[in-house]
Amino acid sequence: MGQKVKSSGIFLFVVGLVGLALLAPRAVAQQQPQSSPSPIPQAANPKTVLERAVEMYEAKKYSTALLAFHEAAAAGQVAAAAYLGVMYSEGQGTRVSYVEAMDWLRKAAGAGDGQAMCNLGILYYRGLGVPRQRYDLAMQWFRDGAANGNGQSMFNLGSMYHDGVGAKVDFVEAMKWFVQAAVNENDKAMNSIGAMYRNGEGVEASFVEAAKWYRRAADLGNHAAMYNLGILYQTGEGVPQDEEEAKKWLAKAGENNTDDDDSQ
To answer: Whole-prediction pTM value?
Structure first.
């Protein structure tokens, strides 16, 4: 499931797992030599250690942050294990090790961390840290993540049903999961809903509904949705034809565009 351009050749419409990049619970981190002294006092509260680790990660002090996350994880902080899973998968402050990533993510997922469940699903989807790709297990972990309120898991399920990966193509089921993800403020799901309304996939085609969902996603910063909304203003489909509005949204879509994986 990569990005693809389809339909009339002017709309960005790509349903697929968001870049297949692992997302951290709140941020991520990197490694430090084992011989280095702890950046946190030995008697520090585990929550304080975790908070400090996140701060160091956000400051891009990855090596120090990784050590602090290890301390917090050893003290039972579930979020720290989830961060470590991301860090080992991304090679942040340490060498890339998908096996190690799997280990930490399983610990966090076992303790109920929804984002860790989602990230495990992504690893199974990509076949990283496991013998081969397992779409069935990817879908299972996405379902577990969704049950724990993880919006990206919901979006990923919608993408798999839309694209027929790990399951038969089912636009109705895809729309169900996209809507649930949208309720959780997932902008990629909102753009996908707009695309499905535009193409009449699982729903009656409606440019008005497409424009509504593209706008919601665009307001959250989704560049693909900005582009799609601009095209609707250009063609006058679902919204009044307005060249100035079209130019505005198309210009926004080109600003700092970092490849929205939900573009369609």
So the answer is: 0.83
